[in-house]
Amino acid sequence: MCLLAFAGVSVAATEAWAKPTGPRAFCETYADAPECMGRSITCNKCHLSTQPVAWNSFGGALFGALNGAAFDDNIASALASIEDDDSDGDGLSNREEIELGTDPGDPLSQWMPRPTPEGADNPSYAIGEYDPSYAHKRVRLLFCGASPSYQEAKAFAELDGGAQIEAIHDALAECLESDFWIDEALMSLAHPKIRPVKALGAETDVLISGYKITLADYQWDYRLWQYLLSGDRDARELLTAQYHIGLDDAGNWRKIDGIISNPPMGFGGGQLLAPEYRAGMLTTQWNLLLNIMFAAVPRVAAGHAYREYLGLDLSLSQGVRPVAGEPLDIDAKGVDAAACAQCHSTLDPLSYAFAYYEGIDLKHLNRTGQYLPERPSERIPGWDAAQPEFVVLDRKVDSLVELAREMSQSREFQRNLAHMFFVYAVGHEPLPDELDEFDAIWTAMPADGYSANRLLHRLVDTDAFGIP
Amino acid sequence: MIMRTLLRSLLPALALASGCRDGGAGGTEDTGSDEVQRAQRGELQWKRNAALQRDLMRALELPEDGVCNELGRGSCTREIHHISLGGADPLRIGLYEPLPDTLVSTPIVLERVVMSACVNRANLDRGGSPVVFTELDLGAEAPAPDDEAFTATITALYRRLLSRDPEPQELTTLGGLAVDDAGKPVSAHDFAVLTCFAIGTSSEFLFF
Amino acid sequence: MINKIGRRQMLLAMAGAMGTTALGSALGRATEREGSTADKDRKLLFVLCATGGASIVDSFLPVTRTEVDDDALADTLNVYDDAKIITPTGSNIRCPGYVEPAGLLGGLYELGFSLDGFLAKHYRWMTVLTQECTSVNHNVGQYRSVNGAGINRGRTLMEAMALRHGEDLIIPNCNMANDGYIQPGVDPTLPAFAQAEIIASPLGFAAAMDGVKGVLGAPDRALVERARGLREELDDASMFGKTFADSPRRQRFLTNRREVQPRLEAAQMMDRLTLLPPELLDPKYGVMSSPLLPTLTGKFSNLLVDPWESQAALSVLLAYYGLSCVSTIGLRQEPTFGNEKLITTPIAFDFSHNDHRMAQYLMWGHVLKAVDALVDLLQQLDYLGDPALGKMWDRSMIYVATDFGRDKTRPAGAESWGTGHSLNNGTLIVSPLLKGNRVFGGIDPMTCETYGFDGSTGDSAPSLKCSEGHIYSAIAQALDIEFPERIDMSALLA
C-alpha cells in the first residue's frame, strides 16, 4: 500500500499519489481486520515490490478502481468497490480474505483450518479442546523451566476441572516469581531489545592503561526490563521510568532515583542522565550509546525503539505513518530520495527527539547518555532553521520523554508486548484462528494495569496455548 | 486479578470434560490401535537448553555441572551446543532470539546430553547411596524383564523423565535392553544407562 | 478458551472447502526442485562477513591525493598519499601499503598482514564490484548483503546455494557468522534441508556429529544402537507419538534423527572435524584430531584463540568432507588478542567510528589473511579427496560480504578520524569463476564515491549504480543459481 509506488507509472500522478498513506487508509476502512489489529500492515497487501513498483492482483484491481482519482479522497470507495471481487482467484472474495487475514492478492496465501478430530477417543489428551494437563505441563516448563514431577502431575490429574484451572494459575503465579522466569526466560526476551556487546560493556576484557573500555553497562537495562515485567508492575514504565534498578548487598533489586555515577576505572557504566530526561529503556546509557553512537540525527535509535517497543519495523514497511513535509533531510543525507522518503517521512520525525542525547563523543566520553540541549544545533547545520517537529504515531510531541509516553500508551505497544509473550508461550505467530484470542489479550492490558503477569495469566487460558 | 477470576469462571465446563483422562500421571491403557485422535493443532514446543538442563537435573537429581560437560571443555547446554539445543547467544554471535526449530545436530546433541546425564547418575548410584537406580545391583547383571527390579527401574525412569507410568508394551519393549544382540545379559550399569537414555531421548521427553 | 464464534470462524470453515486448492499449491511448492548437483559439478561458496562496514576505498579502490586535483578538497576526503598506494606487477587493482599504527588505540594494535602482499599473490582471482547498498543499519545492511535485498523471493544466497548444490549433502548450509548474517531468509517454501545450521562454537562442533563418541562411560556402540532402535519403536507406539504424529517440529526432529544422524556417524565426522590438537584431547575420550589439522594449522596458526580462524578452518573441512556446499563465517564483535596486543578491534570494522584508517587496515588485513589461507588450502586440496574431481579451488567462490561502506570525508587534514556509515561502497570476490584482476565500476576522486557498471557489458558509467541485488545476481550467475529476477551479470563471468 505504499502509494509512492503508484507515482512511478501513473500518468495523473499528483502530490497525493506520492504519499505512502495507503496502510493508514486501509486500516481506516478495515479497522477490525487482522492487519489492523493483531498484525502490522505492510506494502505487501497491494505490492509485489515498491522499488521498482509492481502490484499484486489486489493492488492492481485497486489501482484500476481508483481510475486516476485522488488517492486519499477515494481510497475507501475504491476498496469497497472491489470487496466482492476475488482478485487472486482463490475462491474467497477480497473482503473475506481481508477479514480472515490472508492476502487477497496472493492465491497461495490461504489458511488451512484445523482438521476435525477423527478416530477413537484419545485417552491421554483432550483433542480439539482445552486440555488442562497439557496446559499445566506447558506452564511448568515455560515459566518454571522444568516439567511437573510425577507426583505433581498425578495430584493435578486428581483435581476436578475447576480446580485444575486454579492449579494452572497457581503454578503460573509461582513460576513467575522463579529464578528461571526472571533470570533466564525474561532476560532472554530482552536480548533483541538490548543487544549487548561484551566488548563495550562492564564485562569487557579490553583495558587501556588499567581502564576498562566499558562505555556503558547493559545490566542496568536488563534489570529494568526484568523489574517492570514482573511483580504485576506497569509495563508502560519500560518507556517512561525515570529511575533505575540496582542491586543491594543481598542481591535484591533496589530502586534508584537519582543520577548514578560511572564506576571508577571505566569510561561508562553508570546512568548520568538527569531523571527528568529519562524515558525508560530508551534512554539508558547503553541504549543511547549503542543506537546513537556518532549520529547527529539518531535514526537507528528511533528505528530500534519503533521496532522493538511497538513492533513496527520500518525496514519491512511496517508502521509507515508519513508526516506532511517530511523528510526534511535535515542533515543532507539524501533521505528525501524517492527510495528513502517513504520510510523516512515517518522515521525522521521520530529521530529528531533523540538528537538531544549523546551517543559517543570521543573527546568527552563521560557525555555518553547525557542530555545536551545544544547538541542538535551544534551537530546539525540545518537544525535551527528547520525547527523540525517531533511526531510519533501521528501525534506531535515536544520531547523524547513525551514521545516515549505516547508510545507506551499506544495500542501498538500493547500488541507488541503481547505478541512477544504469545510467541514465547505458544511457539508461533498468532494464526488466523488465534487472532481473536490474541486481540482479546492485548486489548485487556489497560484493564489489567499493563501487568505482564496478568497478560500471561490470560494467555495460558487461550485455546492457542491449551489445545493439543 | 478480577479479570483472571472472571476468565477462570468460564473454564470449568471444558476442564471437566477432560477430567476423566489420565492427566498424564496415571498411565493409560493403549488401545493397540493407531486410530486414536491426533492432535488438532500439534504445535509442540521443545525444551530449550536451560529447561532441558533443569529438567534433567530435576529428573535425575543431578547438580548443574553433573549433566554434561563436552570433552571436559565446557557445559554442553550452556557453552558448546546451546544453539543446537534452542538457546540464544547474544554476546558471542549476536543471536538475540533462539531458533524456532531444531537443527540437524539437535537430536545428536540431545543424545550426548542425556547419555552423559544418565551415565553420571548411574555412576553416582553405583558409588554411593542410590537415588534413581535403587532397585539395581549396579555391579551385577541386568535384571530379567520378569524381575521386579526391572519393572521398578523402568517405572522409576518413566516417572522421573516423563512424569507418567510406563505402558505394559513399553515395559515389554524395553526388556530388549536387558540383553545384547546375542541375547546375553548386559551389566546392570549398562541397562540403567541404556533405559535412561532411550526414555530421555524420546520425543516425548523433548517436546511438550 | 476465549471462544468467540464470529465471521472469521465462518470464513475459516469456508477456507476448509478450499482445501484441495490449497493443498495442491502447497504440494507444488514443496516438490519444487531447482537442480540437484552431482559431486563433479558442485560449486562451493564461502561467505566471509566483514562485520561493521569494510570500506572498499580503504582496500582495493583507493584514491590518491593527486587524483583529486584540489589540495584543499583532498584534505577533507579519505584519500591516500600517492606513495602509499601500491600496484603490484601485473595487477589492475591497487591498494594501500603499510599503515603505521596511530590514533586512539595505536599502541595496542598488532598489524599482522599486508594488503599489498595479498594483492600481489592473488590479483588474478580478485574481482572488485562497486555497489550502493540500501541501509546503514548494521543488522539490516548485513542481512541485505546476503539476501540481495530480497531479490530472490527472500532467500539468502546461502539458502539458494544449498538449494542448488546441496540437496544431496548432509548439512549443505553452515553458518558460523553473527547478527544479520545469520538471519534466515523469508521464503516460507524453502525446504528444510536448505536452512542454515547455525554454529556458535566451531571448536566444539565436531562433537555434534556423533551421539555418543567421547561421552565418558557410554555403553558399547552396539548396545547404544539397540537402545536407539527400541526408542524408535517406543516413540512411534507411545500415545504421545500417536497424538503428535503430525507435528511439524517433531517430524523434523525425527527425520534428522532417523535419516541424517546415521549418515554422519557412519562417516565418522566427529574425528574428521575435530579442530582440537592431540595435546588438548584427553585420550580417555577416544576422540582424534582431524587428519587435516596439521594442514589447517599451517595456515590458521591462531585457530585455537581466534574464532575467525577456527570458523575458516571448519569451513574448509565441511566442504572437503562433502558435508556442505556453503559456509558463512563472521568477524566477532569481541576483540582478539595476539601476542599481548590486539589483532582485531572491538566491534570489528565498526571501530572505524573511532579510528577509521587504522580499523580498516587492521581488519582488512585480518579478513584477507583468512582469504589467503582459504585460497591456498582450496588450491591444495582435491575436492572430497578425489583427484578426479580436481582441486576445490576450481569450483569455489569467496565472497567478502559487509554491512555497508563508510563516510568518505574527514576533518580537514586529519590523520586519524572516525567515520559514520555510508551506503556507497564496493565488494570483493575472490574466485576463478569470475573475471579476475578486474574492477567493475569506478570511483570519483572528487567525492571518493563509487559508481556502477552494466552487468551485461561490464561497462562502467558514473550514472550507474549497482545494488545488493546486482551483487547477489553476479554470485548466483557464477554459481549456476537461477531465478526469474536475476539481473544479467554475464560480463563478470570467467
From TrEMBL, chain B:
This is Lipoprotein. It comes from the Bacteria. Residues 1-17 form the signal peptide. Keywords: Signal. PROSITE patterns: PROKAR_LIPOPROTEIN (PS51257).
TrEMBL record, chain C:
InterPro entries: TAT_signal (IPR006311). It comes from the Bacteria. This is DUF1552 domain-containing protein. It comes from Nannocystis punicea.
